[in-house]
């Protein structure tokens, strides 16, 4: 149970800070208004960093169904835990997205343009082409999961002894945050790089029940892309990891 609580908290932190930076940049009269894409991608990278260093000791900080699926595919995670982990992640994302709405409610109320408001919850393609959009999410998640599978602690060599891994404390979470930042800067311009089914599905679901939805539909016809695309990318990453 402590692992599931950790995944809930970790995903909650991820979405609160990640969707929070999007709201800070897109909504009117915020301190970060019009901060731009670099601010958004940096915010998401740091959101991952904070979430990972908080809960990694308890659950491994998957905070992403695609990561959970990829680890299970690679034989590094018990399949029986996949559904409970994913459920905890989605619930954490839902609660965090609702809190982002409450936190920025005054700014949502004065912002014109429903798509801007919806973007504070879920992703959407700049050019709608399902095959290209699917590829974008799959490739971005492939890079994420494949790199995560190879991230390891640094080590030092001591004469007469085996290599000793060196602990870095909270900084051990930094590579994953930098990885997400890099993916956003390089590959996020097409779909907004969900690369995480819980990150998109949970907030999209809560958005569907908020009063601001009247300004822009939830777009469920696209919602399968940021779910299946990342899972496909994670599966390919795991398969390549096993082959090599």
List the helices and strands and how they pair.
Elements: H1 2-26, H2 37-59, H3 65-73, H4 82-103, H5 105-110, H6 114-119, H7 130-150, E1 155-156, E2 164-165, H8 174-187, H9 197-208, H10 225-243
Antiparallel strand pairs: 1-2
Question: Could you describe the 3D structure shown?
Answer:
With 244 residues, the protein is mainly α. It has one domain (2-243): Glycerol uptake facilitator protein. Helix content is 64%, strand content 2%. It has a two-stranded antiparallel ribbon with strand order 1-2. Helix 1 packs antiparallel against helix 2 (37-59). The chain is globular. The mean pLDDT is 93.
Short characterization:
The chain is built from 10 helices and 2 strands.
How do the SSEs run, as a string of H and E? HHHHHHHEEHHH
CATH class: Mainly Alpha
CATH topology category name? Glycerol uptake facilitator protein
Beta content: under 5%
Query: How would you classify the helix and strand content by structural class?
Result: mainly alpha
- Name the poorly predicted regions: none
- Assigned CATH architecture: Up-down Bundle
Strand order of the main beta sheet, please? Answer: 1-2
Number of helices: 10
Oligomeric state of this protein: single chain
Overall pLDDT, averaged? 93
| Total number of domains | 1
Q: Summarize the amount of helix as a percent range.
A: 55-70%
Total strand count, please?
2
Q: How would you name the CATH homologous superfamily? A: Glycerol uptake facilitator protein
Name the overall outline.
globular
Reported for the largest beta sheet, the result is: 2 strands, antiparallel
Radius of gyration equals 18 Å
Amino- and carboxy-terminal Cα gap: 34 Å
């Amino acid at each position: 149970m402590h692992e599931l609580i950790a995944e809930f908290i970790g995903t909650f932190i991820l979405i609160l800070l990640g969707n929070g930076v999007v709201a800070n940049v897109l909504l009117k009269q915020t301190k970060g208004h019009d901060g731009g894409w670099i601010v958004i991608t940096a915010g998401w990278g740091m959101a991952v960093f904070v979430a990972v260093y908080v809960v990694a000791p308890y659950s491994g900080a998957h905070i992403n169904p695609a990561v959970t699926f990829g680890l299970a595919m690679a034989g590094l995670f018990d399949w029986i835990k996949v559904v409970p982990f994913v459920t905890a992640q989605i619930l954490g994302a839902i609660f965090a997205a609702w809190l982002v709405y409450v936190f920025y409610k005054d700014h949502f109320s004065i912002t014109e343009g429903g798509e801007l408001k919806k973007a504070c919850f879920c992703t959407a393609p700049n050019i709608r082409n399902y095959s290209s959009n699917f590829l974008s999410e799959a490739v971005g998640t492939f890079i994420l999961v494949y790199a995560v599978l190879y991230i390891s602690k640094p080590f030092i060599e001591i004469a007469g002894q085996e290599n000793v891994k060196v602990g870095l404390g909270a900084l051990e979470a930094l590579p994953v945050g930098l990885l997400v930042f890099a993916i956003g800067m390089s590959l996020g311009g097409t779909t907004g790089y969900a690369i995480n089914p819980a990150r998109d599905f949970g907030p999209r679901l809560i958005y569907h029940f908020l009063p601001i939805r009247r300004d822009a539909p939830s777009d469920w016809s696209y919602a399968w892309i940021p779910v299946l695309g990342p899972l496909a990318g994670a599966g390919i990453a795991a398969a390549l990891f096993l082959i090599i």
